Amino acid sequence: MATYLIMFNDEWTPIMEMDDLRERGRAARAVIEEITAAGEFVFSDGGIDASTAICSVDPSSGEPVFTDGPFAETKEHLGGFCVVDVADDERAKYWAGRIAVAVGWPQEVHKFPHNRVRAEV
């Protein structure tokens, strides 16, 4: 098993009315429920954009220096994400495709580079 980040950039989402956005959210939650039922769900969240930035932290002085807002001026912001724990790249791509179709905008898939050991609870 390996963990993957399925994410989208806030700039990739179309401008839409709140009712449309809620409908896309319901569709995405339905896919998340499927991922959960398959035992492959780790965590997800969304609604992240420039307005949700709390601060940036610069460690270059050897001490953390906190400033308001994003680190650099950019139009690109993480909009939302889902972390899955699946057998392989193909399974991660499967879920990314399901999410992309549900919400109607592109998704990007990243494999975390470390080996993850599952803790049995």
What shape does the CA trace take? Answer: globular
Helix-strand pattern, N to C? EHEEEEHE
Report the major sheet: 4 strands, antiparallel
CATH superfamily of the domain at 2-48 and 77-111: Dimeric alpha+beta barrel
Mean pLDDT: 86
State the low-pLDDT regions, or none.
none
Distance between the termini: 17 Å
Number of helices: 2
Radius of gyration: 16 Å
In order across it, which strands form the biggest sheet?
2-5-1-6
Secondary-structure topology with pairs:
Blueprint: E1 2-9, H1 18-37, E2 41-46, E3 55-58, E4 65-68, E5 78-86, H2 89-103, E6 108-111
Antiparallel strand pairs: 1-5, 1-6, 2-5, 3-4
Short description:
With 121 residues, this protein is an alpha+beta fold. Helix content is 29%, strand content 29%. It has 2 helices and 6 strands; from the N terminus they run E-H-E-E-E-E-H-E.
